[in-house]
């Protein structure tokens, strides 16, 4: 028996039918923790891979979320394709999918069928609104769930329309919770020996994040307004983004120490006794005056100088950085969260590691996101003991796809 590697999920096999962001991010986290993740794609590739035919930039999300996975292109609309999936599941620990509710059941490879084949299987299902309830079949994408969840109603400025969050927040909240559900069920299985159906609805992952805004509802018995960059419950000041000579800086003061330190940073200790600013409640009541006072100071400094002064005085703050600055962030590169790689298909790009720091565990050697069907022969040969002739027959029948060829620069000869 092979010696177990010093990785938390070594020996765990994950069948990954995830697509776009939600599912692939959950399985990316398992891969970076040492699991053997087998990505199953339709013969044309999953949607996020298909975007990569448009431009290099469109392909970057696929490279980010599918590193350290092996890839099989499988036609689940064919009987032979479904048979192959069932055989793979028989020896797997986890299957993840984030298709619309009911799709896997219609294909004949849903939870009830696969759990009968492998009672130890953890079946993880991600969807927009869940596997039950009157909204189950509503079409769900990140922006639509942001709208339905209430997130969009509290994002933006009071005199403007609802605005979506810039990042795909809901997709990734869903992916994080899917990973948590998988881990919880795997832990339970060590005691029961049985798997479990785990489901995560993206809409339900948003509600806890609305805590500050919900506090406003209970305090005022009305829906909260959009507050721009101010506190979602209008219960803290300062709490805003302020102009500098070359950009903006975010500043927050939760307690009296923060406020006292901010006055010192601005060299305005003379305001310590001003009734408008003497308490948090007063600063909220006179929020316009509070923000104007700070803006008058920040606009006389660059964001770097303002941040340096505020940091020296222990005032919570951060310059507003663009994504070029963040991509080149020395701190995250030094910690290994970000890494420049030469991707065989997409060239020189920055890719993330897992944010989960598992101290004492070995580092997983990074492998680039796979080509479509790259590991068809390897996986079907190793796990199902199929011969090269049998795999070729499956290709001819359309049950699996022919592996995508490497980029020209990477082909031998």
SSE inventory with pairings:
Layout: E1 13-17, H1 22-32, E2 36-41, H2 47-51, H3 56-65, E3 69-73, H4 79-90, E4 94-97, H5 103-107, H6 111-117, E5 122-127, H7 142-149, H8 169-192, E6 196-201, H9 202-206, H10 211-220, E7 239-244, E8 247-252, H11 256-265, H12 280-285, H13 287-298, H14 303-312, E9 317-319, H15 323-327, H16 330-335, E10 338-343, E11 347-352, H17 376-384, H18 388-397
Parallel strand pairs: 1-2, 1-4, 2-3, 4-5, 5-6
Antiparallel strand pairs: 7-8, 8-9, 10-11
Helix pairs in contact: 1-8
Question: How does this model look, in words?
Answer:
- The protein has 413 residues and is of the alpha/beta class.
- The protein has 2 domains: 13-207 and 328-410, Rossmann fold (3-Layer(aba) Sandwich); 239-320, formyl-coa transferase, domain 3 (2-Layer Sandwich), CATH 3.30.1540.
- It contains 18 helices and 11 strands.
- Strands 3-2-1-4-5-6 form a 6-stranded parallel β-sheet, sandwiched between helices. It has a 3-stranded antiparallel β-sheet with strand order 7-8-9, covered by helices on one side.
- Helix 1 (22-32) crosses helix 8.
Give the SSE string: EHEHHEHEHHEHHEHHEEHHHHEHHEEHH
Tell me the count of domains: 2
User: If you average the pLDDT, what whole number results?
Assistant: 94
> Can you identify the CATH superfamily of the largest domain?
Crotonobetainyl-coa:carnitine coa-transferase, domain 1
**What is the CATH level 1 assignment of the largest domain?**
Alpha Beta
Helix content: 25-40%
In quaternary terms, these chains amount to single chain
The rounded Rg comes to 25 Å
**Structural class based on helices, strands and sheet pairing:** alpha/beta
The outline comes out as elongated
Q: Termini separation (Å)? A: 38 Å
Taken as a percent bin, the fraction of beta residues is 5-15%
Q: How many helix segments?
A: 18
Instruction: Say what the CATH topology of the largest domain is.
Output: Rossmann fold
Low-confidence stretches: none
Strand order of the largest sheet: 3-2-1-4-5-6
CATH architecture of the largest domain: 3-Layer(aba) Sandwich
Biggest pleated sheet: 6 strands, parallel
SS elements, strand count: 11
